[in-house]
Structures are given as structure tokens and as C-alpha cells.
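Hi support team,

I submitted a single chain yesterday and got back a structure, but I'm not sure I'm reading the C-alpha cell output correctly. Could someone confirm the output below corresponds to the sequence I sent? I've pasted both exactly as they appear in my results page.

Thanks,
R.
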Amino acid sequence: MKSHTRAENNQARLQKKVKDLQEQFIGLLHALSQTIDARDPHTRGHSVKVCQYALAIGVELGFSPHRLERLEIAALLHDIGKIGVEAFILSKPAPLGELEMAAIRLHPLLGVRILESVEQLADIIPVIRHHHERYDARGYPDGLGGDQIPLEARILTVADSFDAMSSNRPYRKALSPQEALQELREEAGTQFDPQIVEAFCAAFAKGKIMVGTQEVV
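Hi R., thanks for writing in. Yes, this is the structure output for that exact sequence:
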């Protein structure tokens, strides 16, 4: 009986250590994402908001806790490739030129290059690579379309775009949340997966998406 109790206690301690390590890892990723975003004064906090929106979509789609955790990691790291983009391009207070846009479009591939040696993130790599693909196959870097694009990448596309539309930029004012939602609906089936747009709008209607706050789920 005592040995059984001891085994249970050891198992409980091990589970707590694993949980503590997971929480520390997520905390480090939050810090890293904030460091990435800080390189661009116009998108500070972007990765955290994208993460929150993505998780709200994942919950709406019925993702398991493990899948939500992997989605969280992918969302926090989705722009890590911008570390390799010149700072003057990221902080330019005007629309980007053609060559500057070409440099920006390299960031998914740069992100893959940065993360590909981390075996524990192997399942995250396709999400990082394809979060700028479009449902109609007119995105980058590979021109994938529809279900060819990983589901988590399609989620990030919607979350990323909503934050971009509902945030101020030097060359344009933010859309209202309602206007941004309407843009998502209008682009469903072209830029965005209609299923993901529907899930995002449902989460918004339920109060799980709160623009300008970190409490969305």
C-alpha cells in the first residue's frame, strides 16, 4: 500500500515538473515574440494578439488541449523570420515598394530556416511556412490552396489578417472590428478558408474575441 502511494506521489511530482517546464517554455516564447514585434514599432504586441485570436478559433473548432498548445506555439513564432528582415523595412512609415515587399515575403522561409533544427518543433514548421498562403492559391511562398494548406496555417492567416486590419498603421487608420469582420466575410473563399472565417465570427459573437485586450478565450 505504501509503495503504491509512493508511486502515485512520484507520478504527481513528475507531472508537476512537466507542467512547470511547459509553462516556462510558453513564457519564453511570449518573451521572444515580444522581442520580434518590438523591431517594428507599428506592430508591437501583434504576435500575442494573433495567438489569442487563433486560440479562440481553435476552441471554436473543438481542438484538443494538446493541439491548442501547438497552435499557441505556432502563433507566437509565426513571424520569427522577420528577425532576418532589415529593420528599416519593418519600420518604414509608408507602404512598401516592390523590392521591400519581396524581402518581407521571405520571412516565412527565414522562419523555417531558424526553426528547422529544433526537432521538438517539427510539426510547427509547415504552419510557419504556409501562414501567408491564400485559400485561392495566390499566396506565398508555395502557392498552395484550399486543404493543401495546413489547417493551423489557415487559422493563422485569418487571425493575422484580422489584427492587421483592426490595428493602426502610419499610412492608414484601423478598421473597426465590425468592418474587419466584414472584410473577412467578403474574402472567405478567396483569401480565407470559409470554415475558419465562420469559426472566427462565431467566437466573436460569443464574446471570445475582444479587440484591444488580452482576454479573448
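A quick pointer for reading it: Confidence is low (pLDDT under 50) at residues 213-217. Let us know if anything else looks off.

Best,
Support desk
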